[in-house]
Design goal:
The structure is a homodimer of 350-residue chains.
Chain A lengths: L4 E8 L3 H12 L1 H7 L2 E10 L2 E4 L6 H9 L11 E3 L3 H7 L4 E4 L11 H10 L3 E4 L2 H18 L3 E2 L10 H8 L5 E7 L2 H13 L3 H10 L8 H4 L2 H13 L10 E3 L7 H9 L2 E12 L2 E12 L11 E8 L4 E7 L4 H19 L2
Parallel strand pairs in A: 1-2, 1-5, 5-6, 6-7, 9-11
Antiparallel strand pairs in A: 2-3, 3-4, 8-10, 8-12, 10-11, 12-13
Helix pairs in contact in A: 1-3, 1-13, 4-5, 5-6, 6-11, 8-9
Chain lengths: 350, 350
């Protein structure tokens, strides 16, 4: 690697994934520079406290330390600005890349959606871990990337650190996918697997999931199936080239699944999993998220409490399954790094 | 997609994989043109009978029909040349891309190795399904790609249509892989799985594999573990950045595995699989191929008779498993098409 590409980047959102991403910037600095020829420079960062902006680069370690002390980026020495907005930062700061890791707002996608639109329109590439803007405005965002000749990558939005989107978009680009099945939500798989393996009730398993950090305090988005449905909509747009909407997905959660149901399934040699499915039907796909009784030899039936997975049934590439064991949000953050490398390194190699 | 890229290409080898690739050229012609903006033009093809060369493009259908009639490409009307050599074709024919699908010659890699070297030196990209040149000369070939600014892709050489190489090279580019495990050979997995599931003896299972087209008449390369070892060497070079040699792999085949061994393993809740492993040990990797007793919940333990798979244990991306059901060589041919798309389409998008 003879030259090093310097990439000034902005980060929005310093929660679970955003913090892990900053840790990766520190931990993988040498690997990125020496092995991949990429120097990532954090020129701006935003969270709910405000922003910190420095054209020559902020220290990721200092941001991580602020968050560890319960402070926001507005407290960043010299460069922090209390109350500064993420959108204003994207509008006015020079950078080559926007990383969007703010929480999904499924009402209107904001402020992530405006930040992404602004970045793309200003000629920045965007890597997002935030599902909401994609679910609400995929076609519009895709158009923006084409108009402005930039890339929008989002491998981190589906199944954490598993390259589920990349596998479908890239490795199956010439294949027809006539069926896609996924266990795309960690919380529900954790709950169902613990119920089945350890005989826990739904409430007990949910409490375990929350204690282990695998479920939110308000788990409704997960357990009612909507998180998996969001991911399915993103896969439909990006991998199946199918203009899905959330309203077009038949969604059923796991809140009514009882220990008795699981015992009954086990007695029939089945495993109950929350499965997101896209099934080809003529020119369209039927999309659903629902608890399914899978045969024990189904590739998703074996997935443990900390696993997610996807199965692509194709015309020319056989049946391809991929799964990940994800103990923390680190792999999800690594998927954002993967997208960055894809944008810069793979293009540089050509 | 506004413009169509025309790619003149040469194909060497019209056996199982080469024929399937030609069928894909026909079957996916519209998808490639309309969806991906890629027009692949077969300007030359070589097999043991000779070559057929036509600057404006041969008809893949005619080549497939010749092979179906038991004839070689030398019999191609007007453009066939009896006895013409593949290497001479690569030396003298204008093309942008060489596809190498001739049988692996592990003695000296020829004629594939010389053809690939010549193509790279002439500024052609190369996509190969032939393992031997990579196993014997990976570093030299990599240097050639750098000197001449071209790409060498070989996703089809490992685990058929599974993007095992791509997953490791691309999606785990920033990750450290401290352990890699794979079921990389279909024949041995077919034999071991049929023995375990159906109580067949080794000889019976081998006969079934041969009858089903999953094993060669001389199966020694497969059953003695060398085919898997070759694939492990390719993964070591390409994914682990580790300069492995075949001599450095501890290889043990499955010829001594008995039905009794499998019964004993099953009684202990284990499955016996031929597993290729690369395990980090300080600055190096220990490489081995041997029958392993896997726990029933090991991600490779469940793979059926027509499956191959790989597991990457990483520092930042969790544990990622990928597997494929491969009934015919079609997915392997689709991996060659995947590599072509990667070379042309992903670069064009940037």
């Amino acid at each position: 690697m003879t030259t090093t590409q310097k990439v000034p980047l902005l980060l929005i959102g310093v929660g679970n994934v955003g913090q892990r991403f900053l840790e990766l910037l520190i931990r993988k600095r040498d690997t990125l520079c020496d092995r991949l020829g990429l120097e990532l420079i954090l020129t701006g960062v935003a969270d709910t406290s405000g922003v910190a902006i420095c054209p020559t680069g902020l220290d990721p370690q200092q941001v991580v330390q602020l968050k560890a002390k319960g402070q926001g980026v507005a407290a960043y020495p010299r460069w922090g600005q209390s109350g500064g907005s993420a959108l204003e930062m994207v509008r006015t700061t020079e950078a080559d890349l926007l990383l969007e890791a703010s929480p999904a707002n499924l009402e209107d996608g904001q402020p992530g959606l405006s930040c992404i639109e602004t970045a793309l329109s200003r000629g920045m590439h965007v890597v997002t871990a935030n599902k909401a803007p994609l679910v609400l405005a995929f076609p519009r965002l895709l158009t923006l990337t084409r108009v402005h000749g930039v890339q929008l990558r989002f491998d981190a939005t589906v199944a954490g650190g598993l390259p589920a989107v990349n596998l479908g978009q890239r490795d199956l680009a010439a294949a027809e996918i006539y069926r896609l099945e996924g266990i795309l939500n960690l919380t529900t798989n954790y709950i169902l697997t613990r119920m089945a393996q350890d005989g826990l009730s739904y409430d007990e398993a949910l409490a375990h999931a929350q204690a282990a950090g695998h479920a939110e305090t308000d788990p409704s988005l997960d357990v009612e199936g909507w998180d998996a449905a969001n991911k399915l909509v993103i896969l439909a747009h990006s991998v199946l080239d199918y203009p899905a909407t959330l309203a077009g997905v038949a969604v059923e959660g796991i809140t009514h699944v009882t220990a008795e149901t699981l015992r009954q399934a086990a007695a029939e040699g089945k495993r109950v999993k929350l499965v997101a499915t896209a099934e080809r039907d003529g020119d369209r796909y039927n999309l659903s998220v629902r608890p399914a009784w899978l045969d024990a030899d189904h590739p998703l039936a074996q997935l443990g409490p900390k696993q997610m997975g996807i199965v692509y049934h194709t015309d020319i590439s056989g049946v391809i399954t991929a799964a990940i064991v994800e103990e923390t949000p680190l792999p999800t953050a690594s998927a954002m790094l993967r997208d960055i490398i894809d944008i810069y390194l793979l293009s540089a190699a050509r």
